[in-house]
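seq:
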Amino acid sequence: MKVISRINSALGAALYCFGSSCLRFLKDRRGVAAMEFALIAPVLIVLYMGSVEIVTGIDVNRKLNRAATTMSALLTQEKDTTTPANIKGIMDLGAAAFLPYARDTPQITVTAIDVSSDGKKATVAWSFRRVNGVDTVPFAKNSAITLEPSLLIKDSSVIRVDMSIAYVPLMAWTITSHTSKANGTSAVGITLSDRAFGRVRMEKSAKCSAC
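struct:
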């Protein structure tokens, strides 16, 4: 009986100590803030990084539209015959509009299009393309080109600006598609593109010397 009594006393004391420890643990509030932060921090970081990428992508897309529209407007306001140097300078302005975004450079194609006197045919007056800092001529002079029916106005001239840029996020998240950058490499991202038209205002056609 004495042995059983001692065992019961030992068990009671152990249970009492365990219960007291549990109560002290439940009442202790030290470190609660650290634990809460550890649980919430990953979610907050994901939300923050995601919002930054979304805002950056929207900003790049807006700059793309603004740059294409500005370039077409500047080229259509030329009073005299333009030059390749002037066209390239305007393309420099269009490329600078994307700064400080530097994960890719815009691919720019500027085309002057003349519409025939009957309004049924569109031909290339001149064109320039810039990809990764290299300027080329994408379309041969006087070659036929497709133009939207609404722009086929007799004896008119139109400036068309095509721009595209690869939006490459710092963190891909759920983006699985690949896009080609101006330097020829491939990266996980989205290709953003835009096209702007402008009707030549000061002259009958968009003339360019040495183009």
